[in-house]
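Convert to structure. Protein one:
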Amino acid sequence: MWMRAVLCALLCVLSACSGSDSAPAGSTEPPPSSSPPPANPPPGGVAGPWPVADLTLYASTQGLNGTIIDAGSDEAQNIWAATPDTLYVLRPGQTTFTPFTASNGLHIQSITDTNGTTVSNITALAGGHSNEVFLGYRGYEATIPPPAPPSCCEPNADFSDPRWHLGQADKVTLNLDGTIAVQRYEFLCDATTNCWEERSARRMTFGHSGTAAGHLFIGFDHGVVHVANDTWGDHIHVETKWHYSDGRIVTKQGEQYGLAIFPNGDLLTASGYGVGAQSWNVDPKAWVLGPFVWAMTTYGPAEPYNNGEHDLDVPAEYRETNRGAAVTSDGTAWWVSQLTGLSSYNHSIAQFDFSQVRHYASVPGLPATGLVDIAADPDGSLWIVDSSGRLLRFDPSASSVQVWPGVSSVRRVVMDTTVTPRAVYVSMGNQGLAVIRAK
């Protein structure tokens, strides 16, 4: 089904812990062909904006070590970056990142069972309100017996198996003294007897403006969860039905890597199997009951609305492998796939029209496959990451593509439009973090 109502209480375990002291001073590596960027906040104590040099690089010289998988800023303009086992923060006025690990209360942990050892490591982050960041983790995705007695969501259900508590998410708050407090989010059951469907976070996005300001959306291995003020409902997802030649029908959904918020609060989701726009509701519990404005598989079929069981019937083994989503200011939804490249649909069309879905397989310089992330610039251009680690800037109006200089081994791109000029955060694995302010 498309979504489930929330009829049971979900667990939220609060834990607080201390981090390291304020980071020591250090040198800031300047961007190529530029002078070192200023590190001090502007007069009046207002945080940010950060250096406005065209390109600023952060790496080991600034205390940023390991493989950077995700990064961004919160509303106080703290810069957050993550490796699989460490969360880093650079506060305005500092020049060296402060690290936080499992010893500071982050839920990076391992478990050993008959299948071997599974490590629950960081997979995604999203900067939130001032001095706040949300972390997602990889959970245990193999099958384990459901809790008993008697089942999920029932009183006294047994969640003692530690595998239930891997993955999922944390809210991390940066204290004035430079330590952190960690609040645990656990999505252990839904409204039926299904248990533990939201195990591993694939992507997170937080609304900093528009109707959904202050709301967090987490894409998991299964569905998408909406969080507001530490409250959440169940989950939603586009669902496909695989039809086999022998008559079997298998339901497939999940791999929610693509998330983007429309100005009116509707949520664009681009998953491993389809794309949809979930209608806005300020209440996360009521949100899961609302319809999709539209939902489709990129190459058909399509449904204009989801007012019930509007499953998308597709051939067996149909996949899209969408890996990122973005929304431009003209109301266009964009998504990228490892299999089918770049596609778009204008969300503002009054009545859904599948013929208006656009594909960009013949743009010179833009790969037709192997695209792994995307972010929308306020000027209408798109920042796209390909599987070779290049950062591309695509101008839809001119159908032109530029390979952006000075960055490499790119894994993820995040746009911050709360500052002027806007900041583009580029996670570059072992090469560190790049911040682009160039127009």
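Protein two, convert as well:
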Amino acid sequence: MSDYPSALPETGRDATELLADIAAGRETDLDWKSGRAFSLVYNAADDDLETLQHEVANLFLHDNALNPMAYPSLQAMEQSIVAMSADLFGTDARSGALTSGGTESIFCAVQVARDYARQVLGKPEPSIVIPSTAHPAFDKAAKYLDIEVHRIPVGPDGRADVVATAAAIADNTAMLVGSAPCYPYGVIDAITDLGALAQDAGILCHVDACLGGWLLPFWAANGQDVPEWTFEVEGVTSLSADIHKYGYGYKGASVVMYRDRSLLKFQFFSFDDWPGGFYGSATPAGTRPAPPIAGAWATLVHLGREGLQAKAADVLAATQRLVSFLDATDGIDVLRRPEMSVVLFGTTDPANNEALATALHGNRADRSDFESASRSIPGTGWKVDVQQEGLHLMISPGHLAVMADFEAAITAALATISTTQPTQTPTNQSRYADRAI
């Protein structure tokens, strides 16, 4: 592939030649369509859906959602997405907004909590209390918004420690946070208890369902036990849920929803003391690309409840199969019982986790030379994330068709590394059997 220029070229390049170079460069990018990637992209394994999404993206490619009045169809889609989300999560149809992703949704919720604390609760220097498993987007928002964050260690089950959270509530606390589920472990915090704490303290409570928001309702519809986590929980005042995860829209589309519209109004910005005229927005972004909005709407309407439930069934089947395989495999511990589609596992000797990930990364059908694998080339092998405690996977519908191959890859990878028996009982399925899928 030609070098990427460090300065604007004097003359432009032929489009055909340029596309060929771009395609060549993509050979080292994450290969999610193969089913060998377990993060970043949620593979719906749906050719008809992907064709629809590409066509919708082309239709809106150059449009700008900065001014909704200029694009009535786009505005109608956005309002429809918020209304569908409200119907799914149990709140008012106008009490939410579409954002570019989970980070922006969380930012909005933290900003609302800050301003609500200052203007309604009389707390000029508000803080938020979050579990140690909460997404770093809360800390990022707090940095930009200049408020304090108090991270509380979780309990031995990986969930927010309700007693410790209660003890951390101070005079300046504006909001509590719980996850449904948390990213590192895939377990759902005790949202009912956190909501009750917030309600008793007269403060806000946010549920970060960026990961689970568009899967958990259909997880339950497929017969799984899901604790209450939506606005059905008294005390929950806001919720974030990414459509570009298990809603299968393309990046970036998320929603931030509120118990009522009075909270959403703290998010609005308007300014008319400007020669350019009135400027207003419902989220931090000004110019917003139109394709993710239209794509999210088209995806949700195309799939509907039946389609989302069917894809959830595939995710459930793949997750159950993988967990059963890992449970039966010598040298492997399942470190948390997944309450959704997040699987955290590792070798019985944690020191070998990195070696296992490297071996998996180099494991291709046409290649048995694991030691020569390069983890700097994400397009090869099986891409798994390595966390502090083990290997982290997020299962998508596309993984069901390749699960047998992945199981064979794990077996082969284990054969290339030396494992030892743990010196103490590992944190495995026996501790979390009460919430197992």
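DSSP finds twelve helices and 13 strands in the chain. The radius of gyration is 23 Å.
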